[in-house]
Design a protein that fits this description.
mainly beta; 10 Kd Chaperonin, Protein Cpn10, Chain O; 6-stranded antiparallel beta sheet; two-stranded antiparallel ribbon
Length: 100
């Protein structure tokens, strides 16, 4: 597990990608043919989005949420032995609900 030694500022979200691996039939799909959406776990959140009038709107997300986000627009960073993606809120397509 990665120990976070950074604090996000502004409207950034840090996501740990969840590896796709194989299809249901066991076929390995190369990244260039993979879907344009990626699943990941939120591991850090910035302060939120600041409106033009200066009002801060916190994210309606939580650390640990599993999200589906558009692949490509974020900044990929290697931290230790983990790959992290830094994205904006508008790149998140959906949040998976937790079953109780």
């Amino acid at each position: 597990m990665l120990k976070l030694n950074f604090k996000l500022i502004g409207p950034l979200i840090c996501v740990r990608p969840i590896k796709r691996g194989h299809t249901a039939g066991g076929i390995i799909v190369p990244d260039k043919f993979a879907p344009q959406e990626t699943k990941g776990e939120i591991i850090a959140l910035g302060e939120g989005i600041r409106a033009s009038d200066g009002t801060l709107h916190p994210f309606n997300l939580e650390i640990g949420d599993i999200v589906l986000y558009r692949a490509g627009p974020g900044q990929e960073v290697d931290m230790g032995n983990e790959k992290l993606i830094f994205i904006q809120r508008e790149h998140i397509i959906l949040v998976y609900t937790k079953k109780h």
